[in-house]
Amino acid sequence: MAQPMIIAVDGPAASGKGTIARALARHYGLPHLDTGLLYRAVAANVLREELDPAVEADAVACCDFPDSLLDDPGLRTDEVGKVASIVSAHPLVRAALLQRQKRFAQQPGGAILDGRDIGTVIAPDANAKLFVKATPRIRAQRRHSELRKAGIDVTFDRVLADIRARDDRDAKRTDAPMRQAADAALLDTSFLSIEAAVQRAIALVEARIAAKA
Ligand SMILES: Nc1ncnc2c1ncn2[C@@H]1O[C@H](COP(=O)(O)OP(=O)(O)OP(=O)(O)O)[C@@H](O)[C@H]1O
Ligand SMILES: Nc1ccn([C@@H]2O[C@H](COP(=O)(O)O)[C@@H](O)[C@H]2O)c(=O)n1
Fold this sequence. Notes:
This protein is of the alpha/beta class. It has a single domain (5-212), classed as 3-Layer(aba) Sandwich (Rossmann fold). It is 52% helix and 12% strand. It contains 9 helices and 5 strands. The chain has helices spanning 17-28, 36-48, 56-60, 78-87, 91-105, 118-122, 136-149, 156-172, 194-212, and strands at 5-10, 32-34, 110-115, 128-133, 185-188. Helix 1 (17-28) packs across helix 9 (194-212), helix 2 crosses helix 4 (78-87) and helix 7 packs across helix 8 (156-172). The structure holds adenosine-5'-triphosphate and ligand L45E5XJ5.
């Protein structure tokens, strides 16, 4: 690769952005950070300490954690995801996690990050930006089957309601709301297989890089 490349991948819950970001990381040989895990780590600490996620000071007190916590499979539960979307609305929580993400994005060899505000706040100068979307029902079907496979008994309607509530919180918060950056390419995965979505993502990244060369 001629130059270090930063790729920003944003989108709502279960749109497939993590799957695509991991595949792009493999394809380009770049390190990848799932930034949702940072907010999930704060949420897990809040839950463990029995604090109130809606209270900014409680959430801020939980922002100091080692990178090793990000490997904890306990961060991936739906309950932690829900609390993550509450703590992530606090400006002081976002500020506490900002430099960690910017450092990752700016490492010398390049990087891929996925989240909600990568193209808008964390890496506004990224070489390529994708905003990955899918309809709420399709995202809920994906998440439902993922949870069922993991042995978690939850109804489709519950999963759909959680997805809609999370979208609403993430898009309506005042600080760094989830939105497509003006220069991001839109990738709708609703009717694409994983393989087709990844191929499309690679084509979009290549087109962005060629356009900027
Ligand atoms: N194009 C696709 N077709 C079918 N299933 C998909 C597709 N993309 C991803 N999935 C599946 O949907 C689920 C959610 O995907 P993924 O974890 O990549 O989403 P995400 O946007 O990163 O979610 P979150 O923000 O909640 O972490 C996974 O089980 C994944 O295998
Ligand atoms: N850049 C980001 C990434 C995530 N969040 C918040 O964390 C929640 C969990 O994220 P997942 O990607 O693991 O689902 C998410 O709902 C957001 O509230 C964020 O604000 N910014």
